[in-house]
Design brief:
The longest helix is centred in the N-terminal third of the chain and has 21 residues. 17% of the residues lie in helices and 36% in strands. The radius of gyration is 32 Å and the shape is globular. The strands form twelve sheets. Strands 10, 11, 28, 29, 30, 31, 32, 33, 34, 55 and 56 form an eleven-stranded antiparallel β-sheet that branches. A six-stranded antiparallel β-sheet has the order 1-2-3-4-6-5, covered by helices on one side. A four-stranded antiparallel β-sheet has the order 12-13-14-15, with no helix packed on it. The protein is an alpha+beta fold and 911 residues long.
């Protein structure tokens, strides 16, 4: 038989199988028209198929129940596994396999690899069965419907996030789907996505790109009418359509097509014929206006990156797509923080990754490829941070809490046996930095009151250099160290200046007398300048370069919308690298710079690592190796029962929010039904019911909206924000309307709005100074804010956080000059005096008796009695971080945030 005739028969045969039996006759009459012989050939095949279905009965140990469907990669049957008592799916593979031993051998090899995929969103391959000359794949039976659009934006993103997770797991095993489309994705009745037929295109047809396209992709949506549409769905990438090599970016293109279709209900690339469809793929853009109006801007940008026609310009890794979706909509419902950490650990196993890093200007100009390989250096539970590479790149030092408190560790690059260099000290030791000759390590230590210390590279001869300071960085000749007076891991944005100390003599000099905020310094390689991050105004963090001998700093970045920090000079002085969220996630950028003058010589360039969050950068002397930290962090709101009489928690911790957004500072509405909370990163406010439903975003935009507080009548939520250009108090209704500015302070950083129980007054605190009281029935121009008495120590200030229910006291915490929280404090309106209750802790909340308070410290919630000063822990969840307790009006529920952080050190080697 003529090959073209055979293909025509096969196409019609498969198209008929896709239709219900009662519809096949009419379909064939219309498709074959005057070609009776063609119709008879197809009908004879269908008759044989019917005999097979009714007569086969058994395939090995599986009892065939019914046919589920068919396509270019084989027929699928529902069958029962009598041994395990479950229904499964059997995919009967094309008969030519039995006649081609080489192909069958290759398929068995590929099938074994595909069976190694184990992911909740990938349909499992159980095994391979052979019966009467036919090979069958034994598959997980997935109940549910295949995908289709349009869907509500939230639903579409939920499904897309799960698909991305499936692709991510497969790509990390080197497996590419090659045939992703809505017909190969099912949604179970429970709303769980299952991706089908992973890698089967390659397993069945091999690498041969000359195979007919109707075989490479199962035709289910376009039909296969002879002489009209050939049946190739429009989800192929341009390189796939041209018959070129396919890889994971082919899947990313298909993912973009699927997401577009879920949102719009239309295919991204459409045509009446195969040639028109391929022309659209190769030459035209999708109808971007066809996306629903509610599609978030981040998702629109993600789709454009997925559907770049040039594979080299396309989104390089599906992980980036998943992260973008999770930043917009959160991860799939039901995902627990430990599951996210575990998933990250699996996805980021200790393997070498080869990648192309693209240098792209901030205005979207030209892109320069820089090939790099990435290896993971640490994989311990918890955090390994502050890496510093030795000048020769053979070893590195870092900080870890593996011993129970923060210590400095040394490890060989590629080795697995870290050595604790500070194990003799019970104090916390962090922020290590190798000297230029690799012989010494400077670090921050809390021992003996705290300061900068220096030790030998193997931990010997520990010597104090200063009695204060953070983030030490060596001068190029190793004779001096520059440090900041406040920590860069800032809890409160405090004043911080840069000092230089002589390592031998201890002589100090001030570098930044005209600067209020200068943190995390780094010396340029030829000693001309010192880079730091900070700014003249709190909340506007930019990169600066100041002469090493002091003088006027030069601005390297200049924007208020992004957080720019962690500057590090390249070893040749040609670039200043820094970490920023300007690309949508916290990642690495660089500025071409003149080291002598500090002048920026060109556009800022993105240097994106394969990580959703990168920080703490360190280079070797040659500049070919770069260490950095890759961090994953979740922070969600939880609830636990509380017995106020026995002062103990009751029952299990129950999550209220779930997802990758980092929830902060929950506050419970007066009726106990709603929680308001903020988020880290993109700092917006949300409200959610106490059972976790009806999540609603209150604020949006590139502003820092922080620490919500419900009014006593539940009609407004107060918070502080930099929406006016500086931080002041704002309020908003819980439905997201009525946004208005409440305070208009001429200077100072305003934090923590606190409502009086009667709702007539409000307290706000000016950071580094004192709280003020205003009357809410007066406009701002008529206000005379009443300052509360300051603390006796001018270097410590009181941050007021909560008014007692009886209206007589304020509870807050003391903040030291270096930003540390140094204990719970109450202020009495009756006596106009402060009283210190504890030596440590923060974020107190009153119980209803106006006597006892809850507060947090590290991984515990404590209760303190303000009369007896007795303190004891009521909840402990080490090693995680607890924050911001809130308590119900009857004292029977405590709400809090629980943060889980995993940070590992990676190294990039540039070619």
């Amino acid at each position: 038989m003529d090959p073209e005739r055979r293909r025509q028969i096969e196409q019609l045969y498969h198209a008929a199988l896709d239709r219900a039996p009662e519809m096949r006759k009419a379909f064939l009459e219309d498709a074959c028209r005057q070609d009776e012989e063609l119709r008879r050939e197809v009908e004879s095949l269908l008759a044989a198929e019917t005999v097979t279905l009714t007569g086969a009965g058994q395939v090995g140990s599986f009892r065939v129940l019914s046919k589920l469907g068919s396509g270019g990669m084989g027929e699928v049957y529902r069958a029962h596994d009598g041994k395990l008592g479950r229904d499964i799916a059997l995919k009967a593979l094309p008969r030519e396999f039995a006649r081609d031993p080489e192909r069958l051998t290759r398929f068995r090899r590929e099938a074994r690899m595909l069976a190694s995929l184990n992911h909740p969103h990938i349909a499992t391959i159980y095994g391979l069965e052979e019966s009467e000359g036919t090979s069958y794949l034994v598959l997980e039976l997935v109940e549910g419907e295949t995908l289709h659009g349009p869907l509500p934006v939230a639903t579409a993103l939920n499904y897309a996030r799960q698909i991305a997770g499936a692709l991510e797991a497969a790509h990390h095993k080197g497996i590419v789907h090659r045939d992703l489309k809505p017909a190969n994705v099912k949604v179970t009745p429970e709303g769980q996505v299952k991706v089908l037929d992973f890698g089967l295109a390659k397993a069945i047809w091999g690498e041969d790109q000359s195979v007919d396209l109707s075989q490479l992709t199962t035709a289910t949506g376009l039909g296969t009418l002879a002489g009209q549409i050939l049946g190739t769905p429009p989800y192929m990438s341009p390189e796939q359509a041209r018959g070129k090599e396919v890889g994971k970016r082919t899947d990313i293109w298909a993912f973009g097509c699927v997401l577009y279709e879920l949102l719009s209900g239309k295919r991204a690339f459409r045509g009446e014929t195969q040639s028109e469809t391929i022309a659209a793929i190769l030459e035209r853009e999708p109808d971007w206006d066809g996306l629903p109006a509610g599609t978030p801007g981040r998702i629109r940008a993600l789709l454009r990156r997925c559907l770049e026609k040039d594979a080299a310009s396309r989104l390089p890794d599906i992980t980036e797509a998943r992260v973008e979706i999770e930043k917009t909509a959160g991860p799939a419902p039901g995902v627990k923080p430990w599951q996210l950490v575990a998933a990250a650990s699996v996805a980021l196993a200790i393997v070498a990754i080869s990648a192309t890093v693209w240098m792209r200007g901030s205005s979207g100009g030209s892109r320069t490829p820089l090939h790099a390989s990435f290896i993971q250096l640490t994989d311990q539970p918890g955090q390994e941070i502050y890496p510093s590479l030795s000048p020769d790149g053979k070893s590195f030092v870092y900080a870890s809490r593996a011993s129970g408190n923060w210590d400095i560790y040394s490890q060989r690059v590629g080795g697995k046996n870290p050595v604790n260099l500070t194990k003799e000290s019970t104090a916390e030791d962090t922020q290590p930095a190798f000297s230029p000759d690799g012989e010494r390590v400077a670090f921050r230590s809390e021992r003996d009151g705290g300061g900068i210390f220096v030790m030998g590279a193997t931990g010997e001869n520990v010597k104090r250099v200063t009695d204060s300071g953070y983030n030490p960085a060596w001068s190029p000749d190793g004779s001096e160290i520059v440090y900041a007076s406040s920590t860069s891991d800032i809890q409160h944005q405090l004043r911080s200046q840069l000092f230089v100390v002589n390592v031998s003599t201890g002589e100090k000099r001030l570098i930044t007398p005209k600067v209020d905020y200068a943190m995390q310094p780094h010396w340029s390689p030829h000693g001309y300048r010192i880079a730091y991050w900070g700014g003249a105004r709190v909340g506007q963090w930019n990169i600066w370069a100041v002469p090493a001998q002091g003088g006027e700093p030069v601005s390297v970045t200049n924007d208020a919308a992004h957080w720019n920090w962690n500057p590090v000079w390249s070893p040749d002085g040609a670039y200043l690298y820094f970490v920023t969220d300007r690309g949508g996630s916290m990642n690495l950028w660089r500025a071409p710079i003149d080291e002598k003058s500090g002048k920026v010589l060109g556009e800022l360039e993105a240097v994106t690592t394969p990580s959703p969050y990168s920080a703490y950068v360190s280079f070797t002397r040659s500049g070919r190796q770069m260490a950095y930290v890759q961090r994953t962090r979740t922070s969600n709101v939880y609830r636990v029962g509380f017995d106020p009489a026995r002062e103990v928690t009751v029952g299990q911790n129950v999550p209220i929010t779930q997802g990758s957004r980092e929830a902060l500072a929950p506050d419970l509405s007066p009726d106990g039904e709603w929680l308001a909370f903020g988020t880290r990163g993109k700092e917006n406010l949300f409200v959610v019911r106490k059972d976790g439903t009806s999540l609603r975003q209150l604020t949006e935009g590139d502003f820092r909206d922080r620490i919500p507080a419900w009014s006593p009548d539940g009609k407004r939520v107060a918070f502080y924000s930099n929406r006016s250009g500086k931080f002041d108090v704002w309020t908003i209704r819980p439905d997201g309307s009525g946004l208005q500015q409440l305070t208009f302070t001429p200077e100072g950083f305003v934090v923590y709005p606190v409502w009086a129980p009667d709702g007539n007054r409000l307290v706000y605190t000016i950071q580094n100074r004192t709280p003020f009281v205003i009357e809410l029935d007066k406009p701002w121009r008529s206000q005379s804010p009443q300052a509360l008495p300051t603390l006796s120590d001018p270097n410590i200030w009181f941050a007021a956080l909560r008014w007692s229910p009886d209206g007589r006291k304020l509870a807050g915490f003391r903040v030291g000059g270096d930003g540390s929280f140094i204990g719970i404090n109450i202020y009495s309106f009756d006596t106009r005096k402060h009283e210190r209750l504890t030596e440590a802790g923060a974020f107190p909340r009153w119980l209803s008796d106006s006597r006892r308070l809850l507060f947090t410290l590290d991984s515990k919630i404590y209760l303190v009695d303000s009369r007896t000063r007795n303190v004891h822990a009521v909840l402990s969840v080490p090693p995680n971080e607890i924050g911001f307790p809130a308590v119900s009006s009857d004292d029977h529920w405590i709400y809090f945030t629980l943060a889980v952080t995993e940070a590992d050190i990676w190294m990039a080697t540039f070619e």
